[in-house]
């Protein structure tokens, strides 16, 4: 049995803690915040008309089989998952609406009806290629450690897999090669933002992201996705994990090339294994300084600007998830990734409205409104989101954009809450409010740290951001540590 310290009670930290405890280890989780969940946050607003519950982080769950396996391995049933159809409703600048579906045949029929048979044929060709990329990624990347560029290059891909992955091609380039309709290219570009990247620079291999979403579906948890953190906390407690909130780890201690504990406030806590569920930048800058590793983490992902709305009445024309595209998508990326960076004047707007009585009073709606945004900070690639008046002014702008695209709800707003990249930096310890840590790419910080006994889990480490990837990272780390009987023999 090893003494394991997990730093951070995000989904990755909780999932890894539970897996290690199930493997016979004694596990303690230290979380700087007073609540668990990390970026999978929530906000509860009590009003005279009733209670509103908002997810403030991820709003879509994919790859449900990952969570079925996780909870089966932990000896408990997975939370109830509700399939979404459409997975996402896309509203394009010309007013065309395309509802995505987890049934490939249905989706092709919808593309045919909206854009014509040539567009449907183009998507079918891209889909076959995306399937090859997904198969190679699932087999060779997403479920195993990937510690270096050499390991990535040495994977045993068949020639056809390499041709599908298209090293050196961007996701934008792949769309231009296969998709004649500019609206379908716009839809494909959006998936680069799932990894925090600019589609003009993101690798073509990210075509696996829409394949995963549209093959295995998009899912919702009644009461909101934050209930996933509640379920993981419950499994941790049942397995004997000690979860201590309001306890910030300030340093990782190592001697002789191996971790030996952490410092929590002024107290030293010995440990045989330390699992870091903080951003890799924070780990290597503050907790266990490693200057040589910091350079790889400089390319930060985009951030998000969120407006939470409590609305009177109900809104026709919206699905659970609706994306409203701008006329000039490139102008948005020029603003967000520019130097200087700036909030986009006419951004893509992502609206989540759950038809769930657990999250809103009868006759009302709880809206989660997200736009892509530059990270928080000072410098050419960032925006100081704490600048007085900026957040409220930009929230007004977002509501104006919604109005211009046919959803003017300003006279129905009962209250609003604004969350900026600076808010995420403070609440979840995400440097700059960057949602995914480093931006895009296949190679993220390795799960095994530079000293023995140190491991990285969560969205800033391999295999990347998003709830299923985070859960996969937890399995990779738990398998790398091994069950209790094997620790000490490695």
Automatic annotation (TrEMBL):
Protein name: Phytoene desaturase
Domain Amine oxidase: 12-287
Family, similarity comment: Belongs to the carotenoid/retinoid oxidoreductase family.
One family name in Pfam for this protein: Amino_oxidase
Pathway where it operates: Carotenoid biosynthesis
GO biological process: carotenoid biosynthetic process
InterPro entries linked to this entry: Amino_oxidase, Carotenoid/retinoid_OxRdtase, FAD/NAD-bd_sf
GO molecular function: oxidoreductase activity
Residue ranges the record marks as coiled coil: none
Keywords: Carotenoid biosynthesis, Oxidoreductase
